Task: structure prediction
Amino acid sequence: MKNFKISVAAAAFAMTANVAFAETNITWWHAMGGALGETVNKIAEDFNASQNDYQITPVFKGTYEEALTAGIAAFRAGEQPNILQVFDAGAATVIGAKGATIPVQDLLTDNGAAFDINEYISGVRYFYADSEGKMIGMPFNSSSPVMYYNVDALEKAGVTAPKTWEEFQSITAPALKEAGYTALSQSHLPWIFTENFMSRHNLPFATNDNGYDGAEGTEILVNNDAIKAHFTAVTEWQKNGYFEWFGTGWGDNQTPFEDGKVAIWLGSSGSFGGLSKKDLPFEFSATYLPYWESVTSEPKQTFIGGASLFAMAGKDAAENKATAAFFEFLTKPETQYFWHQETGYVPITKAAYQMAKADGHYDRAPAAEVGILQLSLPAGENTKGYRMGFYVQIRDVMNREYGRILTGETSVEDAFNNIEKEANQLLARFAKTQS
Amino acid sequence: MKRAGFTTTWLPILLLVPQLLIIAVFFYWPAVHALQSSFYLQDPFGFGSTYVGLENYTDLAQSSEYLKITRFTVVFTLLVTFFSLALALLLAVKADTVIRGARTYRTLLMWVYAVAPPVAGFIGLLMFNQSWGPLTDIARAIGWDFKLGVNFNDTATAMVIVSVWKQVPVNFIFFLSGLQSIPKSVREAALIDNRSASGRFWDVTFPLLAPTGFFLLIINITYALFDTFGIIDTLVKGEPGNNPMTLVYKVYVDGFRGNDLGGSSAQSVVLMVLVLALTVFQFRLVERRIHYT
Result:
């Protein structure tokens, strides 16, 4: 009983103490595990230390899919966090649910923060925006697929990193095979060989302006000759021993590159931090994703991948003000540069990019700049991004069919017919959820 | 025969209430909810929804992919159930006759029972690792280019092996205690009648083990259908890709990964009906042939 009294007194004291400081507490649910999670925690600590009015608590919620599902469940129960991290493939779901989030652009301007979308680098700007170009989600960990290569292996084979796929298949790959390497592996077929294939070659990915104009009537345009020719070439490379596929898992395809068996690996610009820390037994570098000269003579920028932060609706004004303050802190050049250096994700604002440049970051590590340079290449009408509902399942369908192509269970033609059919069914179903 | 019973009707009802309440809250209520959701297509955040009637079901019926997954689930369930029961029975019969160090053997054989499914899956992942897994090496040594996560059949094989490995100890415990409850006099009588050990096993021991076997059959089918989820999720590393999956995993993939609540609700209703049919079938047809002592 005595203990009880003490704890009541302590609780009462704690409450008055809180009131005295008048701090606003907000929560941030994210999907950044391991070293990335530590960097997230550091950013939150720095924000908390930088002022006395707000306190942010980051909470790790598992994988991207798990974080989104947890956020949705919490929203339905009225227990949503202030900030939810949502990945690229989930963007249509959360942006489609108007009323679930507050567009960051409105949040920032309503709370007196300066906001100019043109301060963001061009490849990042519109991916999480609506069809009018209003930013809905704050780009957070943004990356783009780039080509990493084993410098020693390429030297040994007497070739340079290929600029085009034509060069790869006629010069680079045969020479690397001769030198005892598997030339190529990649870690994410839907992201690298589909979504960014469309962007790099400026091909439309879906009707309704890649889906930005609304879910109603949006159809995927994946079944085209350019991409079918690409996958046919990939199966040829596989037969000739130029390309190997190690399954749908990301790491299974990265490991052979790290082991020095595969000379060129297509991964994320965000993989740079991890690769640098691994102390690989060879020198590695990175460059742009190759393109097909037969498809385009003017290759364009790529899409961003990764995730963005959404301000959840249903919170009071004081908490929204705190969220806005955190977003302001997050987009400061210093914060972005820190995040960029630690993780390899691109800095999302031009100012942060300039700061990294001025500091000599890219003189020390030229490969760290590839992602942002590629995102800043000329834009085309099909390069701002895509917005498709149930896109997680559409990616699953792609992964399944691509896996079947690469294990010889199906033909390129049948696979793309299937993807088109199933993706359009999913898009039509999604459109019905939105009414 | 006179049966013991309650004199009033309200007392048994009162005693049943807590149990019924639990069943209602944790089973019937969600089941009704799933049934209702299966007729709608709804926005995951709960803003919009469209009544689509039976569309979620007709979509399933027309999906060749769903049919493939169903077929795989049936084959997977049969293989896991058969091998789990057969291996456990073999081990139990052998362990039953061991006299020296019996406790140690039995403990070692039951050991794996304590492993949680995701952990079992993770161990499987290590054993079948593409580049250095010991079981991958063994497969390659006999000329099988085993590739977990790449080749459909190889991944399916790994799923069956890990699921069986995880389930054998449970069956082993039940079979062993079943064997030990067979009266010694019966065994001795059988020994006089029949000199062949396998003959005695099939004619005497096996029928006497039937009640245990029937119970285990139900438990194992349920295990293969539902509880292997953690193993499958770990072995495919959360990425379904072109890997095999079971119906339950598909419900998760569509509902929790993809946020398609209507579609995955329809799938759970299909599973509910399946389990119901299975249970009725088992009790009606199989249990009649089994004699409890």
Notes: Confidence is low (pLDDT under 50) at residues 12-20 of chain A. Chain A touches chain B through 46 residues (CB under 8 Å).
